[in-house]
Amino acid sequence: MKTLDIALTSLRRFLRDRSNAFFVFIFPLLLVLAIGLVFGGGARPVMGMLVVEPDSLTDEVVARLEANDSIETVAYDNRADLELAVERGVASAGVVIPAGYEKLLLGGESAVIEYFAQPGSTGASVGVAVSAAIAEQSSELRAAQAAASITGGELSDALATVRSIDLPGVEVTSTSAFGNGDIDPANFGQFGFGAAQQLALFVWVTSLTTATYLIQNRQLGVVRRMAATPTGAARIMAGELLGRFGIALTQAAFVVIASAVLFQVDWGPPLAAGALVLSFCLVGTGAGMLLGSLLRNEQQAGSIGLGIGLGLAALGGSMVPLEVFSPGMNRLAHFLTPHAWLIDGFTELVGRGGGLADIANEVLVLTTAGVVLTGLALLAFRRSLTRAI
Predict the structure, then answer these.
(1) Neighbour order of strands in the sheet with 93-97
(2) What element of type H or E holds 222?
């Protein structure tokens, strides 16, 4: 019971610290939002489409665009609503197919399809899809025009003949230069990968910076007073350890739940995701307690904890994806940081649709690192406890 009381006291102290209101609960979500809006490429760009007068060739263009998995098409009833949607960013681009589209083309005249887009890569990607759909139809029309001019027949009949011919095609496949071609970015959504990065960053930084609580307990004589009561050293150590773990788990749970509710982030199968998060929290717990046991004052703990926290987070892929690193830096990241293993685990769960068995290696590495750091932390804390008494 005393062990739990010590742990709950640490957790209440953490929650009552007013400076944590922003840096622990608001700032992570702001970063998830910002990264998702700027770099989130998993979500399909939306293309608004206005068909003024449906006909067979128009329906053909629409069907080809709707069959494109890289974009999402939304129909609009009038031009004003479509332009407003593009202006407000609801749609990345807009397409207007004019009246008489089929009549103009079958009559040998040109038809103009209007296209307007938001500046940026998403609007450009929609433009590529629209151009590809129109180019495919245009190539068939040109072939039909050539056939009609030779035979003297109707263009519509020549078009039907051209489409009845089974021509060989070209299939294009793409793979990632970093070996992740089997990952579907759409699985992460717009905010998913950024949320995983911020989970690793803030659990780690929070665990290290709250190591100051251990130092304050020694400086203020809290440890001495606890030891003067019928509370053994083992209970004090267990209580402080459980309190560190509770702080790390609170930070992690907030990021996971808040991002899932606010940004619809998918964290994968709950059991597997939970195993990853718990093992990572154990690593943060051991690192934070070790830091607080070795350092002598709050200033050291604050500056060193923040420096180590941000430095290893950057190396571990919490600020930039690991794929941009060279192979040597990637290996170094996995050797020195737990972040790389956590992000790899969520990439497996969400990007590849894996399960608990697929992340067994990541969970094992994180758990082992957590146990080692926790063991070292307990040894160091016992020495500091002896000095304080």
Answers:
(1) 72-75, 46-51, 93-97, 114-117
(2) helix 222-228
Query: Are 350 and 266 contacting, i.e. CB atoms less than 8 angstroms apart?
Result: yes
Q: Is-contact 90 45, C-beta < 8 A?
A: no
Question: Which tokens is 192 given?
Answer: 């998913």
Task: Kindly provide the b/e burial profile for residues 208-225, where b requires at least 16 CB atoms within 10 angstroms of the residue's own CB.
Answer: bbbbbbbbebbeeebbee
* Burial of residue 32 (number of CB atoms within 10 Å: 0-12, 13-18, 19+): buried
Residue 384 and residue 236: Cα distance in Å, rounded? Answer: 12
Mean pLDDT of 261-273: 93
Give CA 354 to chain center in angstroms: 16
pLDDT band at 177 (very low <50, low <70, confident <90, very high): very low
Q: Are strands 93-97 and 46-51 parallel, antiparallel or unpaired?
A: parallel
The first and second tokens of residue 102, run together, are: 């089929």
Quote the pTM value: 0.70
Alpha carbons 87 and 105: distance in angstroms, whole number: 31
50 φ, ψ to 5°?
-120, 120
- Which tokens hold the place of 67? 């069959």
Q: Name the helix (H) or strand (E) containing 50.
A: strand 46-51
End-to-end Cα separation, the chain, in angstroms = 22
Residue with the two structure tokens 């495919």: 136
Could you tell me the pLDDT band of residue 136, with boundaries at 50, 70 and 90? confident
